[in-house]
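Structure (tokenized):
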């Protein structure tokens, strides 16, 4: 991924890296353009599945069916063995099924290790003392760092994808896990330069560093950067030493707080109340608003305005980095049911699926018959895997934006629209009007 949010792809036929919408050779290598895009789509989805499987493996969990699919998918997408577009749509749906298995596996691993998340208010400023900022998705690495910094006087902060860590009982018990700094992945260069702390990057979504903080940046696990110290295993003594060598952070509380930790168990404990409020017409509609994020002006404007303009008798479920566009808003509650429920990060999409399925059972209808609309911001490989999981489950009427996926052309978009009623977002007022009028 480039720093501007466009996707770089490598064309294995042309042997070149291409940016944005795909290969610019326009079929010179003999591969039909639609097939090439579908292969890109499958490759992106497999990257997302691989990330979830990698995190689960850190806790000793794996699934041979998921591993076998990744091998088959790589063979199909990276070699010239099949140019049939229909086969690649079928493989994408299979990828969605495998991603569901991977997300379930990872959720189980996290809950077994740390307990089920509970609603937790997270501070957004700094606390006086030395500090380490942790970004990425790897909760196992965060836990090991918390163990090693306990009693050292070094505070630990989360960034971006790490925000949900505060909701897990097994992690929030560490009193020196003091808050969250910044928002989505793309604020790194400004945020990291702003605070005098050591930075540990645990997985993806890392940008090439600026000189004014590169000397206090460390990578770990599968991520690496040129000239940046890399840590193999779980010995973070070098990170801790760097944090102690830096000036202390000031005691500067943030202007807002964030609330995370609405697990499926927590939300479904409100099922009776939710049914009562829906039946009485006090909750008119649920919205799942989330997904990946990008430094795009339209994304910033659209999603914040969209959430702000939703009627007061609606409930918003949110997850992944897209939530940072609006998760600082105080939307109140409806007779004890919070209007904004942060379910976690991209890997916690399984929580949204579980909640939707449980609500469908509660009301005795199919998921597509619920008063529920999915509005998904578009970016990144995991977004591809999650989209195909939703489509594999038969979920229709999803809104996507602010840009169409890079692997979509007119032919593919027509298939998504005709078969799954995919819609592209337009303007908040028009979209809300259409969504609220839906059955």
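Design, position by position:
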């Amino acid at each position: 991924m480039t720093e501007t949010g466009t996707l770089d792809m490598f064309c294995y036929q042309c042997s070149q890296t291409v940016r944005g919408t795909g290969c610019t050779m326009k079929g010179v290598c003999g591969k039909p353009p639609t097939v090439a895009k579908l292969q890109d789509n499958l490759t992106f989805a497999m990257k997302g599945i691989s990330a979830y499987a990698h995190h689960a493996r850190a806790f000793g969990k794996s699934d041979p069916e998921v591993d076998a699919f990744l091998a088959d998918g790589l063979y199909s997408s990276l070699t010239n063995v099949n140019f049939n577009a229909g086969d690649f749509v079928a493989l994408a749906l299979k990828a969605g099924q495998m991603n569901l298995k991977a997300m379930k596996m990872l959720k189980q691993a996290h809950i077994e290790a740390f307990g089920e998340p509970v609603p937790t208010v997270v501070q957004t400023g700094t606390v006086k003392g030395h500090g380490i900022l942790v970004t990425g998705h790897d909760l196992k690495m965060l836990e090991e760092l918390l163990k090693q910094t306990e009693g050292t006087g070094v505070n630990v902060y989360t960034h971006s994808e790490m925000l949900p860590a505060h909701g897990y009982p097994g992690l929030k018990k560490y009193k020196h896990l003091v808050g969250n700094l910044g928002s989505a992945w793309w604020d790194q260069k400004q945020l990291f330069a702003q605070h005098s702390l050591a930075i540990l990057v645990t997985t993806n979504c890392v940008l090439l560093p600026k000189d004014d903080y590169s000397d206090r940046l460390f990578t770990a696990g599968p991520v690496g950067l040129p000239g940046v110290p890399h840590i193999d295993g779980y010995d973070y003594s070098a990170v801790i030493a760097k944090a102690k060598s830096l000036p202390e952070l000031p005691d500067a509380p943030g202007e807002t707080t964030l609330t995370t930790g609405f697990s499926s168990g927590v939300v479904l404990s409100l099922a009776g109340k939710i049914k009562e409020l829906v039946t009485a017409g006090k909750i008119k509609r649920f919205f799942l608003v989330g997904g990946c994020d990008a430094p795009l002006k339209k994304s910033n404007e659209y999603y914040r305005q969209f959430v702000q303009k939703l009627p007061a008798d609606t409930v918003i479920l949110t997850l992944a980095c897209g939530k940072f566009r609006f998760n600082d808003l105080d939307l109140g509650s409806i007779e004890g049911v919070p209007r904004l429920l942060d379910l976690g990060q991209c890997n916690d999409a399984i929580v949204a699926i579980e909640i939707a399925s449980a609500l469908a059972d509660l009301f005795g209808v199919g998921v597509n018959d619920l008063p529920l609309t999915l509005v998904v911001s578009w970016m990144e490989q995991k977004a591809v895997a999650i989209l195909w999981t939703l489509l594999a489950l038969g979920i229709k009427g999803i809104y996507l934006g602010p840009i169409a996926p890079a692997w979509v052309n007119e032919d593919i978009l027509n298939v998504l629209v005709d078969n799954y009623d995919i819609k592209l977002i337009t303007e908040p007022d028009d979209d809300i009007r259409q969504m609220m009028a839906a059955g």
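Reviewer-requested clarification: The two ends are 38 Å apart (CA to CA). Residues 85-114 form the longest helix (30 residues).
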